[in-house]
Amino acid sequence: MKSAFLKFNNWQVNKRQVKAKAQEILVLCPRCLQNHTCRQDIITDTHNCKSCGKCQVMDLVKLCDQLGVNLYFATGGGMAVKMAKQRHIKIIVAIACEKELFYGILGTLPKPVVAVKNILPHGPCLDTGVSMEDVRKALEQIIIS
Questions:
Q1: Structure confidence by residue, pLDDT tens digits, 67-86
Q2: How many structural domains does the chain have?
Q3: How far apart are CA 82 and CA 28, in angstroms?
Q4: Does residue 101 belong to any structural domain of this protein?
């Protein structure tokens, strides 16, 4: 059911042709994208990443810097919803597992959210990944040129 909801949500955002300026977009990520052995504090500042290559944090930082969008890593769902509800944020590209995306979309209504499911090679909440192509496509679709 959650998977169908996420597909419908993304279809709706696409159909409505929701767009915003880059600085009004938030890419919201779970901390589990960071390698579990890493001690760099990416919650306070994503640029603290040392580009070791053990995870995709630096790839996300580079992409968001290149496009001029906001990037935030949350330690939990409550923190993610709080960041998404900031007034200057118009659209969220959320990366997470199906469950977190489902509840996050509901928690941030009426703001539009583009859901990007993360990859779970080690199961949930541990060293997850994401298709950078899917993230890039989602951002290019919503950024006002």
A1: 999 999 998 888 888 999 99
A2: 1
A3: 11
A4: yes
